[in-house]
Design goal:
Elements lengths: L44 H9 L24
């Protein structure tokens, strides 16, 4: 047996593919509304480049209020 002949004990199961193509899927992976959901609609190249430069920020973000810092008290023994 050589190094290139070694195989893992348990083979990974292949993921099940879910069909989203064609004309009969609910939204066929396009979402519900908007420019990209419409037929024949394309995002203009200058806008597309601008969108790609902005990082993806996901989820709900709220402003954190600064927590009150504990006061240092001198303790006499």
């Amino acid at each position: 047996m050589q190094l290139h002949q070694i195989q893992p004990l348990n083979k990974r199961k292949s993921k099940r593919r879910v069909g989203r193509g064609g004309k009969r899927g609910t939204y066929c992976g396009r979402g519900m509304k908007g420019q990209r959901a419409r037929t024949g609609a394309k995002v203009r190249p200058e806008i597309r480049d601008l969108i790609k430069k902005i990082p993806k920020i996901r989820g709900y973000r709220f402003k954190r209020k600064s927590r009150p810092k504990p006061k240092k008290n001198k303790v006499k023994t």
